[in-house]
Automatic annotation (TrEMBL):
<keyword id="KW-0460">Magnesium</keyword>
<keyword id="KW-0548">Nucleotidyltransferase</keyword>
<feature type="compositionally biased region" description="Low complexity">
    <location>
        <begin position="135"/>
        <end position="145"/>
    </location>
</feature>
<keyword id="KW-0695">RNA-directed DNA polymerase</keyword>
<feature type="region of interest" description="Disordered">
    <location>
        <begin position="132"/>
        <end position="155"/>
    </location>
</feature>
<keyword id="KW-0378">Hydrolase</keyword>
<dbReference type="GO" id="GO:0003964">
    <property type="term" value="F:RNA-directed DNA polymerase activity"/>
</dbReference>
<keyword id="KW-0540">Nuclease</keyword>
<protein>
    <recommendedName>
        <fullName>GAG-pre-integrase domain-containing protein</fullName>
    </recommendedName>
</protein>
<keyword id="KW-0239">DNA-directed DNA polymerase</keyword>
<dbReference type="GO" id="GO:0006310">
    <property type="term" value="P:DNA recombination"/>
</dbReference>
<dbReference type="Pfam" id="PF13976">
    <property type="entry name" value="gag_pre-integrs"/>
</dbReference>
<dbReference type="GO" id="GO:0046872">
    <property type="term" value="F:metal ion binding"/>
</dbReference>
<keyword id="KW-0233">DNA recombination</keyword>
<keyword id="KW-0229">DNA integration</keyword>
<keyword id="KW-0255">Endonuclease</keyword>
<dbReference type="GO" id="GO:0015074">
    <property type="term" value="P:DNA integration"/>
</dbReference>
Amino acid sequence: MGAPGSDAQALFVNVMKNSLQQWHERLGHVIFQDLLRMVNNNLANGVELANKKITFCMACAEGKQSRNAQPTQDTSDSAPTDELGTVICMDLKVDLKPDRNGNRYVLTIVDHASNYNQVFLLHTKNETFDKLQMSSSGSTTSRSRPYVPMAGESS
């Protein structure tokens, strides 16, 4: 072993000059201007800079990125399908009282290609097939919404 106290002195003797980029990374990607202010005002002991050149930090850029750009056109994964989605709504726990017209069920049909929705009120679940046929004959497979005449409008 060396002279007494030499180990403690060795910790302070070996000070290396590092670049601004290296100190930026070591201190958790602190802002370059803040790091320069700390060095210039002697707020950080033992920090000596070999060069003060500010470089581009890819890790900081990736950390600030919120999300990738959205595709401008539909891809095969995100494109809507030409299928119809259907849901029959009913109350399973309690016998649902019919409305004033005697309807107990609600059939919802969604054309995923055009995002066109249709809602039918049903007396029984057996009416579902007829409503689906009626809906599919009037639906389109294009991505534009089908024309629905307004009340009182002649077609």
